[in-house]
Backbone:
């Protein structure tokens, strides 16, 4: 997977000239905050940036601050645990269409935080906005976990397995519609 997203990819083109360059990293920082809060941050950071991770968890710095101060504005595969990489591939990126750079995350981000703004780059980097998008990512992650669980291994009871398979089918249908 390598490079997932970079703030500097967003500075040109439709990026509003009136905004500071950090606005190109807000969407990345919000996601990175969620990654940190859910202990999906990679060992490169748990070993080298442990105090900064605690600052994010204690809401003393934002994920965007972390992105620019500890990741040079770049979000890499190595910034994540194995589970974080898999979830990110399926949610932040588009695992089906590699020509499309973003997956469901950016749609959720725009719908949740930027629907009334001129561009997604104008979303304020604050904890209130993080709390809103975090609730959406939490729901996506719960569905991801359900979709990636060993449904057949959850119970030897065929009746329960049948219910679990129906539930899994419903969740897959819901995920596709979102």
Residues:
């Amino acid at each position: 997977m390598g490079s997932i997203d970079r703030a500097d990819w967003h500075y040109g083109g439709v990026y509003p000239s009136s905004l500071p360059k950090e606005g190109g990293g807000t969407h990345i920082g919000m996601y990175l905050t969620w990654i940190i809060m859910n202990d999906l941050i990679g060992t490169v950071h748990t070993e080298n940036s442990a105090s900064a991770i605690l600052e994010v968890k204690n809401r003393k710095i934002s994920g965007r601050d972390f992105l620019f101060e500890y990741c040079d504005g770049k979000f890499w595969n190595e910034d994540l645990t194995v589970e974080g990489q898999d979830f990110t591939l399926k949610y932040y990126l588009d695992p089906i269409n590699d020509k499309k750079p973003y997956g469901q995350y950016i749609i959720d981000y725009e719908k949740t935080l930027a629907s009334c703004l001129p561009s997604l780059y104008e979303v304020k980097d604050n904890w209130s906005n993080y709390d809103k998008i975090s609730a959406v990512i939490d729901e996506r992650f719960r569905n991801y976990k359900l979709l990636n669980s060993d449904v057949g291994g959850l119970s030897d009871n065929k009746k329960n397995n049948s219910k679990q398979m129906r539930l899994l089918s419903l969740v897959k249908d819901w995920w596709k519609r979102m």
Summary: Residues 3-127 form one domain. The two ends are 24 Å apart (CA to CA).
